[in-house]
Amino acid sequence: MENAFVVKGLRKTYGDLVALDNLNLEVRKGEVFGLLGHNGAGKSTAIECILGTKIPDSGTVEVLKMDPIKDRKELFQKVGVQFQQTHYQDKIRVHEICEMTHSLYKNPADWKELLEIFNLDKENMKKQVSDLSGGERQKLSVVLALIPNPELVFLDELTTGLDPKARREVWNYLKNLKSQGLTIFLTSHYMDEVQTLCDRICILRKGKVVAMDTVSSVIETSNHSNLEDAYLWYTGEEDLGA
Amino acid sequence: MKTFKTLFIVESKLEIRRVNSIFFGVFFPLGMILLMGVIFGKKPAFEGASYTALQQTFGALSTIGICATGLMGLPLAVADYRDKKVLKRFKVTPVSPSMLLFTQVLISFIIAVISTISVFIVASVLFGYRFTGSVAGFLISYLLITLVIYGMGMFLASISPNLKTASLLCSIAYFPMLFLSGATVPYEIMPRTMQQVVNILPLTQGIKMLKNYSLGLPVTGLWFQVAYLGILALICIVVSVKVFKWE
């Protein structure tokens, strides 16, 4: 199976704080991969180092066989990104941010269709982004990440703030895209979401990998019965061997 | 090209919706020219002068648009986009965030030009203003002033860690420049000592060039003015490019 991206020996420090310590990842094409960990465990730093918006202290990153910094113009034609807590230009309307994003790509998706799928069409389209509810804004950030028609998409806390119904809508749509071959790299604090979507997961604790495998294997190795208990066990303060 | 066109259209709409640049850059100088026109009428600049007080003022008022966009609108938009991580989001697209910056600069400059043209039209139609000098000299001076003022604005945006600092620094630069350089309060009515002090403001020098060119007077100290503005613009732009952070 071909890899969507490969990360080797990634390390990033902020002063004395080691945000990421020797991260090695291989995410395969067509896979949904979840990166888990408490706030501050290094998830966003990992995503930013992979995307090239942060420069790692050491280690190498190859995304779709390209260098995310040197080849960014070509690479980001095929990669969609949703950052945590996205902000937009003051006073911009929903259809305007979509048109703007749409204009950046060679083969973009139909953004009106995407808005419709996520129930953001009709009156919402003319609203200013700042007048949307938190959940609607979150869905918009997912829509914007999908406008490039990407081969690979990064979703940082994709459903934070969404109600249960909206979460299901997003999940179903992502599953549908996965079946068409999209590779998804996501972070999440919701274990039901991770279990529904992810093929494999990686759990980070203080910048170090403490588990990386399929969801069922991770649960099995932890001697717990469900993913949430397993996750808490892996990220807990007790020694891992104990 | 499609990208640039879309960015330009959307960002222009946002700039109009945000009101500030249009208000301080276009409506404010229009108010000033109306005021000056009513006060001065067709009076000569001084007894025996070959040109009117209004003609003398035109060069000064034509820079207000440059100042409002260059020292407020542009740097604040850039600092805001950096704070909101709009620029960072562009870094994970095929388009460079510098295209967004360029769009902002262009929109600001267009507003400045609209401002100057509006002032010219109002002055001509309502108060019988006549431009008697060198159009080429005026335009070149205008561009040089834009370069130095926008350079200063970008410099302030670059050295500010956040929007709050940027808006403080911009106010500190904008208001003295607006009131002391002769852009609003005529340089000619200032006491001699004050004139000597405000001579260090780049805009004071720029306005002198504009005045002389718009009145068709012999331009004195031209090389000093060009060198001063040119070097200042260069320093500001080089430092901005070096120091600027995308987030």
TrEMBL record, chain A:
InterPro entries: AAA+_ATPase, ABC_transporter-like_ATP-bd, ABC_transporter-like_CS, ABC_transporter_ATP-binding, P-loop_NTPase
GO molecular function: ATP binding; ATP hydrolysis activity
Domain of life: Bacteria
Domain ABC transporter: 5-231
Pfam family, one: ABC_tran
SUPFAM superfamilies in UniProt: P-loop containing nucleoside triphosphate hydrolases
Key word Nucleotide-binding present: yes
Swiss-Prot/TrEMBL keywords: ATP-binding, Nucleotide-binding, Transport
Family from the record: Belongs to the ABC transporter superfamily.
Protein name: ABC transporter ATP-binding protein
Organism whose genome encodes this protein: Acetivibrio mesophilus
The organism's taxonomic lineage, starting at the top: Bacteria, Bacillati, Bacillota, Clostridia, Eubacteriales
UniProtKB/TrEMBL annotation, chain B:
Annotated membrane topology: Multi-pass membrane protein
Keyword Transport: yes
Molecular function as annotated in GO: ABC-type transporter activity
Record carries keyword Nucleotide-binding: no
UniProt keyword annotations, A-Z: Cell membrane, Membrane, Transmembrane, Transmembrane helix, Transport
Transmembrane segments: 21-40, 60-79, 100-129, 135-156, 168-187, 222-244
Main location: membrane
Annotated compartments: Cell membrane; Membrane
Domain ABC transmembrane type-2 as annotated: residue spans: 20-247
Any single GO CC term annotated in Swiss-Prot or TrEMBL for this entry: ATP-binding cassette (ABC) transporter complex
Entries under Pfam families matching the protein: ABC2_membrane
PANTHER family, per database record: DOXORUBICIN RESISTANCE ABC TRANSPORTER PERMEASE PROTEIN DRRC-RELATED (PTHR43027), TRANSPORT PERMEASE PROTEIN (PTHR43027:SF2)
Family from the record: Belongs to the ABC-2 integral membrane protein family.
The protein's name in its UniProt record: Transport permease protein
